[in-house]
Amino acid sequence: MPLNIPDRLPAVGILQEENIFVMNETAAIHQDIRPLRIVILNLMPIKTTTETHILRLLSNSPLQVEVTLLHTIEHVSKNTSVEHLQSFYKTFQQIRSQKFDGMIITGAPIEHLEFEEVDYWEELKEIMDWAAHHVTSTMFICWGAQAGLYHYYKVPKYHLPKKMFGVFAHQVNNPKIPLVRGFDEDFLAPHSRHTEVRRSDIERIPELEIVSESARAGIYIVKNKGGRQIFVTGHSEYDPETLKEEYERDLKKGLPIEIPYNYFPENDPSKPPVARWKAHANLLYYNWLNYYVYQLTPFNINEID
Fold it and tell me: Most Cβ neighbours (<10 Å): which of 104, 167, 193, 299?
């Protein structure tokens, strides 16, 4: 799939080096098709890194995707320049009258806070309420998944005794669900979080279905019955080096951190990690784009409700 993203976005060069088909805005306007419109609410501090992670996975489809990047106005980013935000991002007020085929809401390193303590919580609630009627399907990642489950269904999050950190084996609960079509019976995915949601809370809500979970890492994928909301508690979008960078960052800060589980060869941080979750990650995003966005969204995007 050609990604239609701004010509000067830093991720463009990285993705082109990886032989990913990136179509700039100039070329895209000459294709006589309606691209899927995907808006990404990027809540991560280093936004350029997360842009690359997600855009890489959105490329794995024959469809053309037009990407809009969104940031909150209630929080001042300390790790991404104002120039970058002004050049490539929009605010909710700028897009609230529009409709989108799909939306992705990322995680954020703010799990130590209660949801109501987050400085942009009211803005995020407004965006999530808007998405319910302006977006065909929304994928929520990590803290974003916990926030979505709490806002829509009052599912609480619980603090873990230690960070869930590493690469964990998962199982598919129902292989007939299109979101996990083609998945292996056991597959790997990274997690990096201090909190969790629990099966017992989700099972009490008839609208929700647990799609995948892990014996060690717990709940992984939850969706609502119509597929308009997909909640992913892990980080399938991570690069091979991301957990290593997080581990070294926490060590330098003197934080209590264990070696990421099942990540470094022979559990040795001096050895380069090998990514063993990329095939699953690509399939997850491909299935979401195909079965929950493209197959369900109306051709006239204004008919989304």
Answer: 104
